[in-house]
Design brief:
The protein has 18 helices and 15 strands. It is α/β, with parallel strands linked by helices. The protein has 3 domains: 30 residues, no CATH class; 199 residues; 243 residues, 4-Layer Sandwich (Nitrilase/N-carbamoyl-D-aminoacid amidohydrolase). Strand 12 and strand 13 form a beta hairpin. The chain is elongated and about 110 Å long.
């Protein structure tokens, strides 16, 4: 209970003397609270910590918390903090520290493997958000005008897409944690992904956050902010209505074999024996394909014909082709490859896909001569894996065409799009996340299959050694029940097939190209404005001289 006492507000609290008794408690001074809050923001150290914490908030929208709804407001605290920066340089610093916090939060499960190197990588990648922070203050700082607020709804999502595009390069860690991927279980967002890929969903999420921040920033910005939010809702509704839906084209029966965690000496042989045992149990199930996880075979099949024959015997027993993944040194080529190999009732079919995009530090060390010390502080690769040369679409069983991907290649939108354009009817990802078994990583990885399926209009099977294994239909919908990280079992799925071409498969990464155009127009407009501001005013003609009486002087009089 509060009462006013002079110029201060006093708070009355229950007394310990007896029921119904009250005593005067410490006063709450709102002005003092605001002063303390302002002082905290003025401190560069406290402000930096706050920026990192605000940047980390969007990670809660991803699995395992999977608070997908939180993504639409998670950037607001970061936006409001950055717009309040006293200078553009400080806003860029807030952007950098927020980006660092975001990268650490989304990749925190790497800390046990890479240790302090995780923070180094996050700090380097966080620099990508420094220009974005400057843009936030430039457009939303102070009392933003309706024009600046309206521009922010286009420019800030475009700037965010540029950050996602640059850090999606394999050498910088790949497109893990793209903001649009957090919407993997939201049907309208998946429909948007079929139009413009995960990029369009990311732009939508940032636009909504920007609109909410603009509403809180200034009364003058409320009209364009509300108009922008209405436009986003209208665009989403239009995409929902206009975007073509996949045309059903029957089903195929696919089984996933997940052996579970195997540790210690002889783990590879134990894993193979368990996979063999589980596959035998699938006999008589009328399957079209059996899929094993990444690194399910630890020896090159050409060099170990005994293993090839055992898998061939399993294929005959279940009357279906088996897709395995070999992580071994090749007998026909130098180096270690991760290869998807198709084995049929007559033996290996010759269809082979060598993994093209490798995990930095996990499967190779970038610039090993410079960064090789990372192997001494974490679990970085002791020897670089070798890269494949091209994607492969394989023919399975009765004319079924599948497009294999290995591990985090399922995070790259362009790879699944290319396989679809090459005729893949089913996308397959073979993965192994046993190193991060008790973290958010397995569920985050499995969720990517939903986004890739929605983008391409093709079902996707995500098969792992230790979970989470899952299947998603052509619209991104979940098919059947996933196998969790505690399962050592098999699962059979009636996978729906589809025909037709999504807008994303046809037109590609057009949201990214549009974002580039928006930023180019911004640079042009700012350049013109700066030129006009700095251009000296034209000289005015001097007025004619006047006589002592105030009239113009005329020569000759």
């Amino acid at each position: 209970m509060d009462v006013l006492g002079g110029n201060r507000r006093h708070r009355w609290v229950p007394s310990r003397v007896g029921a119904g008794a009250w005593r005067r408690g410490p006063a709450f001074d709102s002005r003092r609270w605001r002063a303390a809050h302002t002082a905290a923001l003025a401190s560069p150290w406290w402000r930096g910590v706050l920026a990192a914490l605000c940047g980390a908030l969007p990670a809660l929208a991803f699995p395992a918390p999977s608070w997908w709804w939180f993504a639409y407001v998670a950037l607001v605290p970061w936006l409001l903090l950055t717009r309040s920066a006293p200078t553009g340089r400080r806003a860029a610093l807030d952007g950098w520290l927020g980006g660092l916090g975001f990268m650490v939060a989304v990749h925190h499960w790497l800390l046990p493997s890479l240790h302090v190197f995780t923070l180094v990588i996050a700090a380097l990648l966080g620099l990508l958000w420094a220009p974005w922070g400057w843009l936030v203050r430039h457009l939303l700082g102070g009392a933003p005008s309706p024009g600046r607020a309206g521009a922010a709804l286009l420019v800030l999502p475009s700037g965010w897409l540029m950050v996602e595009l640059v850090r999606s390069w394999e050498g910088l860690g790949g497109p893990w944690g793209l903001l649009g991927s957090s919407q993997w279980q939201v049907e309208p967002a998946l429909r948007l992904a079929s139009v413009g890929g995960v990029w369009l969903v990311s732009a939508l999420v940032v636009a909504v956050n920007t609109g909410v921040a603009a509403l809180a920033a200034s009364r003058a910005a409320r009209v364009p902010a509300l108009a922008g939010l209405v436009a986003v809702a209208a665009a989403t509704s239009a995409a929902w209505t206009w975007s073509p839906r996949p045309d059903p084209a029957g089903h195929v029966r696919v089984a996933v074999v997940q052996p579970g965690v195997m540790n210690g000496v002889g783990a590879a042989d134990q894993r193979f024996a368990r996979e063999e045992q589980l596959t035998r149990s699938l006999a008589g199930r009328d399957l079209d394909l059996v899929v094993w996880g990444e690194s399910s075979v630890a020896h090159d099949l050409a060099g170990r014909p005994d293993l090839a024959e055992r898998i061939t015997a399993l294929s005959r027993r279940v009357d279906a082709d088996i897709l395995v993944n070999v992580d071994a040194r090749r007998s026909d080529r130098p180096g270690i490859f991760k290869s998807t190999v198709l084995v049929g009732p007559e033996g290996p079919t010759g269809d082979r896909y060598d993994k093209m995009r490798l995990v930095p530090f996990g499967e190779y060390v970038p610039a090993r001569s410079l960064l090789g010390w990372a192997t001494s502080v974490g679990k970085a690769a002791g020897e670089d894996r070798r890269r494949g040369e091209r994607p492969v679409v394989m023919d399975v069983g009765q004319g079924l065409r599948v497009g294999p991907l290995v591990c985090f290649e399922s995070a790259f939108p362009d790879m699944s799009r290319h396989l679809t354009r090459e005729g893949a009817q089913v996308l397959l990802a073979q993965s192994a996340t046993s190193t991060f078994q008790h973290s958010w990583a397995p569920e985050q990885h499995a969720s990517l299959a939903a986004v890739r399926a929605a983008e391409t209009g093709r079902p996707m099977v995500h098969a792992t050694l230790t979970g989470v294994s899952a299947v998603h239909g052509p619209s991104g919908e979940r098919v059947g029940k996933p196998l969790g990280t505690s399962a050592s079992s098999t699962a059979e799925y009636d996978v729906p097939l589809a025909t037709g071409t999504t807008a994303y498969v046809r037109y590609g990464d057009w949201p990214v190209h549009t974002a580039l155009g928006v930023l180019a127009l911004l640079c042009l407009a700012e350049g013109v404005r700066a030129y006009r501001f700095r251009r000296p005013a034209p000289e005015q003609p001097a007025p004619p001289a006047r006589t002592a009486h105030g009239s113009p002087a005329h020569p000759g009089h």
